[in-house]
Design a protein that fits this description.
By secondary structure, the chain is an alpha+beta fold. The chain contains 5 helices and 7 strands; from the N terminus they run E-E-H-E-E-E-H-E-E-H-H-H. Helices cover about 40% and strands about 15% of the residues. Strands 1-2-4-3 form a 4-stranded antiparallel sheet, with helices on one face. The radius of gyration is 17 Å and the shape is globular. It holds the Pfam family DUF6382.
């Protein structure tokens, strides 16, 4: 995975289809980290160009508003994935695969496909939200808990999930305004 500022992963056989490889190596798919494919000793590896980015696991997300910003951007990426013929339910979403550019605030995902039996977008997102909640220090983790419940227990499309996170961001901002002044 992430070592010496390089992200490399061993891929399961036929994990990434040929048309996905073309899209991911072409540079046209700007929502995912650009990648190349290497074969070594009969195994296929994905190597990602992470210039300017680092995985979220290298950061401490202490503010709920930052966590909601990250979550909203991940949901936007997943909603755009279908435009590139990538199934959002197959995208592995963890602190290791979600990358952040500190200078621009941009979020990208290193595309690692989940095996068919593990491909469950709702479960993956709820686990990711749990990872985001671990370092929060502002006492507003209930907003992420509400987002997790909304995603897990309701059968909504990504657009509705994005709208819900936007609503939670506005509620958090309003709460902060009331407390601050």
């Amino acid at each position: 995975m992430w070592e010496n500022k390089e992200f490399k992963v061993k891929l399961e056989e036929n994990a990434i289809r040929d048309f996905e490889k073309i899209m991911l190596t072409s540079g046209e798919c700007s929502i995912f980290m650009p990648m190349g494919f290497i074969s070594e000793n009969g195994c296929e590896y994905g190597r990602y160009n992470c210039s300017g980015f680092a995985p979220l696991s290298g950061y401490r997300v202490e503010r709920t508003e930052d966590a909601l910003y990250i979550l909203e951007n991940v949901l936007l990426i997943l909603s755009k994935a279908v435009e590139y013929f990538i199934d959002p339910s197959k995208v592995k979403v963890t602190e290791e695969t979600v990358f952040y550019n500190k200078d621009t605030g941009q979020i990208k995902i290193a595309y690692i496909p989940l095996p068919g039996e593990e491909a469950n977008m709702r479960k993956s997102l709820v686990e990711f939200i749990g990872q985001l909640k671990q370092c929060l220090r502002d006492g507003s983790g209930r907003y992420l808990a509400e987002a997790a419940k909304y995603i897990y227990y309701h059968n909504y499309y990504l657009r509705e999930m994005i709208n819900k996170v936007g609503l939670l961001k506005r509620q958090l901002e309003e709460e902060k305004r009331k407390v601050g002044g």
